[in-house]
């Protein structure tokens, strides 16, 4: 039997149930009697929970009071946020001298200023900006936070940091407004647009050198007073430790993962045992080892401060976890990709850097951000070995005489802070995933 | 010169082979574990020669050409490509790989890069060609494989035939002296096979040295200077295509040909 359909069937719009709000309700919440009842019961439970939370946390809460007794006098069943509010500075900065808080804030601002161009469209050379953040910002911020005398090395790095930050910012502004870059702009200003390559390069180097010397001379007289690390604390300390951990985790993890997959037995065995050693021990043990055992192995008189020991421990720990994440990502890349890269003559590093890693990292983003979030939360363990990070600060509120016994509110406040930071991180990772997979996965 | 003009009475492309030797295999042996894949392979390929390798699956034909650019390591014997002995020297291997193009059954394009970036990756990073020139070169080759309009798409957005043509262009961008094809049409739908074979025939006309592993016997008849039949790690028979198909000598070849030509 043969059949011929002469005309094409025209496309029609979807039935209403697919598109309208009522249709959505019907399909997702009230599709059957049982589902309708479940929906109503769930709504009731949500209502009860939210209502009591609202009454305790907002409606009946006390926002201004001198001490806990006063809180009770004003409202017996409400939350006592007054304690948290009076302690806000402590929660964020620990015991950092109150007159010097601007340094911490400035450090944070600089970081934002430095990294902001990475998210702006039309800015070129983002890799350079990113790398300069990793390599120069820590020196600038480190000096801002710690203060004291600057050695020659620190002076050079600080100068480099300042010059780089100025350059980056100008470069990005020019990029956003005119679509060009700083070098072209400077050459245009000096009327050297048509000069030879060598001439142009020398001009730019001269400008760089002059700026460097000028900034160096200016920063020589600039000093800020010492703030010993024992005064660092609160959210600030948590972010410093986890920030350093996060930035070193990825490069460290990539190196360890490549080492573990290496064909050279010595490198492979070393990397594998290093990774397995750190992964089989809880972070708190690593922290204790770093602060109590490590000094025993060091020559007498060799004192490393506890904060540095803790940071090193956190970095090693997070790098080992990251290594396994990276390894999993590498294993997901089909062998054909390696062969394709080899077949056009790319060597090991070209293959890894241009073909394999970009693909692997893209697959790994959710896991990477997951371990970043984990690390941020794990750093609160340092409060156990006597650093006053955010958790330490939150818990010491209840030791403070006027607020003795105030446990619930500070911890809830801390939970909200962590939630906000972690939620932003995970949203951003989702955004990155979507952005990076554009095109490739279609 | 068009394909028809270049073909002689037997419907064959005129040979471009010269007397200069470009690939030489001496008593090459390879094992996968205990499995002997290549057994005492001797092979000499001249510059401009076009060789088709056929044989049943598992006969070692893919392994053979993968040894030529060292995607597989052989254990005994010598492989000399373009005057360079393949050994553990990584520099030599990278150099040989940049001179030997390879096209795979599964394309192996880089999915995270656009078509143009796939093509310019080698020239920019291996040959150190300036970006603008590399792009120009890439567009030329995309024109040659007839898909310049796909330059800004990603591999995942192209059909299999288009992807394979991009893969050929990607190899050609490195300006290779030798092209290896590892079953380039085996993963394609019948209607796409032709577009890829057409590109390969055009490439053959330019005098490129080619070694092609394929089951496309029509293609072999058209372009090959020599057909090699492999079975169980041996080169069983090699001959010019007309003789090979019409007058096979060994029993194994006869059996193989009767099986693939019977339908």
Notes on the protein architecture:
The complex is a heterodimer of chains A (442) and B (263). With 442 residues, chain A is mainly α. Chain A folds into two domains: 71 residues, no CATH class; 340 residues, MetI-like fold (Orthogonal Bundle). Helix content of chain A is 71%, strand content 0%. The two termini of chain A are 40 Å apart. With 263 residues, chain B is of the alpha/beta class. In chain B, the strands form two sheets. A six-stranded mixed sheet of chain B has the order 6-7-8-3-9-10, with helices on both faces. In chain B, strands 2-1-4-5 form a four-stranded antiparallel sheet, with helices on one face. The longest helix of chain B is centred in the C-terminal third of the chain and has 16 residues. The N terminus of chain B is likely disordered. Chains A and B meet through α16 and α17 of A and α3, β6 and α4 of B.
Mean pLDDT of chain A: 87
Mean pLDDT of chain B: 89
> What count of helical segments of chain B does DSSP give?
10
Radius of gyration of chain A: 28 Å
What does the overall shape of chain A look like? globular
Broad structural category of chain B: alpha/beta
Portion in beta strands of chain A: under 5%
Task: From the alpha carbons, calculate the radius of gyration of chain B and give it in angstroms.
Answer: 18 Å
Annotation, overall tally of beta strands of chain A: 0
The beta-strand count of chain B equals 10
Write the element-wise H/E pattern of chain A from the N-terminal end onward: HHHHHHHHHHHHHHHHHHH
The largest chain-to-chain contact, stated as pair and per-chain residue counts, equals: A-B, 22 and 31 residues
